[in-house]
């Protein structure tokens, strides 16, 4: 718990694995927990024996909408809601949302150029990319168009800041959540802040408006979730013994969850990819040459372009290896089982230290070096597939993975084609980083120099 509080889990996990080996038993408050860095065990738990490890940890917050978020649902309810949400993130549906992302990326590049022209050539990456990913979630999950960087007083922006950096997210009371499973129930009011209520209310009113309008042309997440509701309703009319899972409450909880799960993780990845490209001009030139070639071939930045940039993909994968925003993948054992000599009892939690695995020289040679070539097709096949875990693994992996990948590529295509990025005297190498109490990995003060390309 002390580690969580000191916010150095990434480095300490790596040190612990080095010092104590790949199987470490510990207690999280009163609950037994296995920290395990073995790719074969990861494959069994996340994929082959998934039926024994369907759940994540029990939701620490008891409030109604929290418990309905996909990331915290358990058992059958998780399976049903995941099944209904899967089509929302299919390639075809993301294709429609790419145009919405493109509008936000256009604003992103304009804001960088404005910063360079009117303020300074040195830009704070997280500030700009955080605004971009907020704009994307606002338009795709809430149907609201904003330019958050230029509208700091917009209630959406103000409340989002409160959720991610309000006093609750920094309180030592957070540690109490892990002491016993009853404490969280007493503390739910503590997290159910005004800002959360704001997002729930926005979600509710937009869902009601769309239902009343019966207009689903935008093709965003709200439209697609309303389609999922209709489908469930049809199936249940045909078979009245079936239960309804995808209620309005579930739908609104997912809108807020997509914002929580997609905003900071994606902004961090964009920040770090841009930082590594500033440090590695050759990789930047290669990525730019590819982007320019594919823009000419496909007529600008569109779905075809972003799906046809293999080197840019490698850059993003290498960024996620070096700097995975999700530091641990976790599951709870729901049916006892033995795996590779480890006896898992029901209720035991298991965590896979993503950062420690990504930085282990046994799996990645010279792990601290930025080398996108590691992810070339010919190299990938030589590694154990469970050593690269930025989006988790198996049926409970990140449902937003493809959405995030397209969003990142759209943004980088816009930025790299218009701006040259380099290190400034203020750029810190190596980057300073911290672990936030929700186990995400955060870079601090990442600044680079930018120059308009023409
Ligand atoms: C670079 C960006 C992102 C990273 C690195 C990331 C990473 C992760 C990781 C590591 C997990 C846990 C997977 C596991 O336990 O196996 C996860 C789960 C999840 N992510 Fe993401 N994520 C990103 C973007 C997004 C976006 C954009 C969305 C939604 C719009 C999203 C929605 C979710 C949800 C709903 C879950 C829970 C899935 C479930 O329990 O079934 N993520 N993500």
TrEMBL record:
Heme binds at residue 398. GO terms for molecular function: heme binding; iron ion binding; oxidoreductase activity, acting on paired donors, with incorporation or reduction of molecular oxygen; steroid hydroxylase activity. It is found in: Endoplasmic reticulum membrane; Microsome membrane. Keywords: Endoplasmic reticulum, Heme, Iron, Membrane, Metal-binding, Microsome, Monooxygenase, Oxidoreductase. Pfam families: p450. It comes from the Eukaryota. Its cofactor is heme. The keyword Calcium does not apply. It is a peripheral membrane protein. One of its GO terms (cellular component) is endoplasmic reticulum membrane. Cytochromes P450 are a group of heme-thiolate monooxygenases. They oxidize a variety of structurally unrelated compounds, including steroids, fatty acids, and xenobiotics. Belongs to the cytochrome P450 family. PANTHER family: CYTOCHROME P450 FAMILY 3, FATTY-ACID PEROXYGENASE. This is Cytochrome P450.
């Amino acid at each position: 718990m002390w580690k969580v509080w000191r916010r150095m889990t990434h480095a300490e996990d790596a040190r612990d694995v080095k010092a104590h080996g790949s199987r470490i038993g510990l207690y999280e408050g009163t609950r037994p927990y296995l920290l395990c860095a073995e790719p074969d065990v990861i494959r069994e738990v996340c994929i082959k024996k998934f039926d024994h490890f369907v759940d994540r940890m029990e939701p620490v917050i008891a409030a109604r909408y929290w418990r309905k978020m996909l990331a915290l649902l358990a058992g059958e309810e998780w399976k049903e809601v995941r099944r209904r949400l899967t089509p929302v993130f299919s390639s075809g549906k993301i294709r429609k949302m790419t145009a919405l992302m493109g509008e936000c990326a256009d604003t992103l590049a304009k804001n960088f150029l404005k910063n360079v022209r009117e303020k300074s050539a040195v830009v704070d990456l997280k500030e700009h990319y955080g605004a971009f990913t907020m704009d994307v979630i606002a338009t795709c999950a809430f149907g609201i168009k904003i330019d958050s960087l230029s509208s700091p007083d917009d209630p959406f922006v103000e409340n989002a800041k409160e959720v991610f950096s309000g006093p609750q997210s920094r309180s030592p009371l957070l540690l109490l959540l892990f002491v016993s499973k009853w404490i969280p129930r007493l503390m739910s009011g503590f997290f159910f802040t005004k800002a959360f209520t704001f997002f729930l209310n926005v979600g509710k009113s937009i869902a009601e408006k769309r239902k009343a309008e019966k207009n689903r042309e935008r093709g965003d997440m709200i439209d697609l979730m309303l389609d999922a509701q209709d489908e469930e309703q049809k199936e249940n009319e045909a078979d009245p013994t079936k239960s309804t899972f995808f209620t309005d409450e579930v739908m609104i909880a997912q809108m807020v969850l997509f914002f929580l799960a997609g905003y900071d993780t994606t902004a961090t990845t964009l920040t770090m990819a841009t930082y590594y490209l500033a440090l590695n001009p050759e990789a930047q030139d290669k990525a730019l040459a590819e982007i320019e070639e594919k823009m000419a071939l496909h007529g600008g930045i569109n779905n075809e372009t972003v799906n046809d940039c293999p080197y840019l993909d490698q850059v993003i994968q290498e960024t996620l290896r070096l700097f995975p925003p999700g530091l641990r993948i976790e599951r709870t054992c729901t049916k006892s089982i033995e795996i590779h000599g480890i006896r898992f009892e029901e209720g035991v939690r298991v965590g896979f230290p993503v950062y420690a695995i990504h930085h282990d020289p046994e799996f990645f040679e010279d792990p601290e070096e930025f080398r996108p070539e590691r992810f070339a097709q010919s190299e990938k096949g030589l590694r154990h597939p469970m050593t690269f875990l930025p989006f988790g693994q198996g049926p409970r992996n990140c449902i937003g993975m493809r959405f995030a990948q397209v969003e990142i590529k759209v943004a980088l295509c816009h930025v790299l084609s218009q701006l040259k990025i380099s290190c400034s005297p203020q750029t810190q190498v190596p980057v300073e980083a911290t672990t936030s109490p929700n186990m995400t990995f955060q870079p601090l003060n990442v600044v680079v120099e930018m120059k308009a390309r023409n």
